[in-house]
Design goal:
Length: 329
């Protein structure tokens, strides 16, 4: 059997900066992120036992009193995705039965986010199913980051805080001091977001003319001037890196001097690591919303932590303060 460990978060001081009825727990998917969030809050991770029996059933035990507590459960849907989603649901059920006052599911990446619409016959809307399961299990609130489709918030009857970590990525790109920068939106759907960050970086905006048919991506060209520029390609997710590979080739063919890539979520599935090694990027800036093991940390990959962002959102929710104010101005 395997078990999730719990114990002191590194760097935690002797006095917490939040109330004693706040509890932050983490499933088995990303213990490093849970530890980072707790360190930022100045508390220890909540005591949780999660084991797999020989029959492949998951068993969870909350190993501390959570009655009337404000509990936040951190779980990212890293592979095996279904197993981690199920573990999260079981943890929420255990907390509800232990009389937690409020339960917030913290999903840095929302599982099945791309299955958000019925665009073919006889297919599911799995993102809606996940929303229903979270509510049925007993979640009172959800925190997530950079939803692939913001309308997923409408699948819920409970509050959903969709945080943005793209500012964290854009601020790091700013420190690279790139000459003649131009922010490139990978498709029309990301144009508004990239326009905001082009303004934030003091850069111009370009747009890729991209078409996706199922999993096949075709790039027809670039709208805007990239010749002789430092192209900053911003996106929400780096999965197999197929789109990145084609986008980088297109930008360099259009005369870009260099390409820097930035995104929030980096599951790095399948051939992603090999493709990253072959793509002539100056840098690829991502966050740790997914755990990235050493064998996937290719040269040029820069990993930023979203733990402080999640910790600040948790602190504001616990205090009853605005979360949206984090992104104003």
């Amino acid at each position: 059997m395997t078990a999730a460990s719990s114990g002191p978060a590194p760097g935690v001081g002797s006095e917490p900066d939040v109330g004693s009825d706040l509890c932050v727990l983490g499933g088995r998917s990303h213990p490093e992120l849970t530890a980072g969030v707790c360190a930022a809050l100045g508390i220890r991770p909540g005591a949780l036992e999660s084991i797999k029996f020989a029959n492949d059933n998951t068993f969870v035990r909350i190993r501390q009193n959570v009655r009337a507590h404000d509990v936040f459960v951190i779980q990212t849907p890293a592979p095996p995705v279904d197993e981690h989603v199920m573990e999260l649901l079981i943890i929420i059920d255990a907390l509800r039965r232990a009389s937690a006052r409020r339960i917030t599911a913290v999903l840095p990446y929302f599982p099945y986010a791309r299955s958000d619409k019925k665009d073919e016959g006889r297919i599911p809307i799995t993102a809606r199913l996940v929303a229903d399961l979270l509510e049925t299990a007993g979640a009172d609130r959800v925190i997530t980051c950079n939803l692939h489709s913001p309308q997923i918030q409408g699948f819920f009857h409970i509050p959903v805080d969709n945080l943005s970590a793209i500012g964290l990525v854009a601020d790091h790109v700013r420190t690279l001091d790139l000459p003649r920068p131009v922010v490139v939106a990978p498709d029309v759907g990301r144009a508004a977001l990239c326009r905001d960050y082009a303004r934030r970086l003091g850069a111009e905006l370009a747009l890729m003319d991209k078409q996706r048919v199922r999993s096949e991506v075709t790039i027809h060209g670039v709208i805007g001037e990239v010749r002789g520029r430092s192209a900053i390609l911003l996106d929400d997710e780096l999965d197999t890196a197929g789109s990145l590979q084609k986008a980088t080739a297109s930008l360099l063919a259009q005369g870009a001097e260099r390409v820097v890539y930035g995104c929030v979520h980096a599951p790095l599935s399948g051939p992603a690591v090999d493709r990253l090694r072959s793509v002539p990027l100056q840098a690829a800036v991502v966050t740790d919303s997914f755990p990235i093991p050493p064998e996937k940390r290719v040269p040029g990959l820069r990993i930023l932590s979203i733990a402080p962002l999640l910790a600040e959102a948790i602190r504001r929710i616990y205090d009853g303060r605005s979360v949206s104010a984090m992104f104003e101005g």
